[in-house]
Design goal:
Length: about 425
Amino acid sequence: MSLQQELLQLGRQARQASNALRSLSRGVKDEALRRVARDLRDAKAEIKAANALDLEAGREKGLSAAMLDRLELTDDRIDAMAEGLEVVAALPDPVGDIVHQYVHANGLRIAQIRQPLGVVGIIYESRPNVTADAAALCLKSGNATLLRGGSEAIHSNIAIANIFSAGAEAAGVPAHAIQIVTTTDRAAVGEILKMDKYVDVIVPRGGKSLIARIYEESRIPVVAHLDGICHTYLHEDADPDMARQVVLNAKLQRPGVCNAMETLLVHEAVAPLQLPALAEALQKESCELRGCERSRQLIDCAPASDEDWETEYLDKILSIKIVSSFEEAVAHINDFGSHHSDAIITESYLFAERFLDEVDSATVYVNASTRFTDGFEFGLGAEIGISTDKLHCRGPMALEGLTSLKYVIRGTGQVRE
């Protein structure tokens, strides 16, 4: 069987499964998720053995420390995957929810209800926990899933997907509801993007080159998870202790993820007092600093180039810019950011509200770390991605983001004149 034939077979199977999933009861879906969670915990040794093969190959390829961190599966991370499934199982089922209903003047009873999208194709890189998160959210929202992970995590992804599929099917989920593409052939991505007959939406998670390719080639609607060029802005009244706590967390708690801070903006009024101490704390944790000319007059750091303001480092690197006003800070974020997650540290209610209104990002924060942009942290159970689009869904894409709306009309014989 050729690659094209193999993928078309997966697509046909996914479409058949999606038709059966639409009417699957919440009880079956939730029990399947709980069972898979138990199976993942029981299979830790198997999962870590597969993950070890990926880590070894990654080191041989020279993957960065941040990339290897994203790839590694520890006992705690496997437990977190399983817990994520249990949290999703406990969430309300969005399928069939009535969003809006009314009675028209002609007596028609009109309602909008949530329905599954159908078949969701997930194309992703590096993080194998995406396999479990995506499959769980798609199953709970009544969608079939076609998973295509990156070659760097192929063994881990296949192990997790096989455990998930077997456990879900044993609990009563239709066969082929969760399928994974097992080839590492890059041509597989191109073939999937042509399968508009079988796949209803593509959700990509990965680097710029992958996202650009998917946008260029896809015949299928795409919900993009783009760069995380996230900012923290210290306003002129920023509390020093709070600023230090939030900045260190946003940059260093886990630098290799999309909601980590990449640029620190500091109002000129507080820069002389706060920036040197912040720089010292960051550099103590081996964080490389790249600053504007005004910053370099206060701290010892490399010069920041124009490219730095538009770079997602995913590493212990931070660009720093001193701004003269709130307006300059907001303009910088809107011009150079990726509209992902941005924060202000301020004691001013007025400027906090202005920041929330004027910053054009999927998630905006007042006095908190951008690291909270996460489906699990938002109480959504997990996420399939963090959308920086403006259509369909924006921010962490969880259960509701995997549904569409359907009009249901009930009449008593009305006809249109």
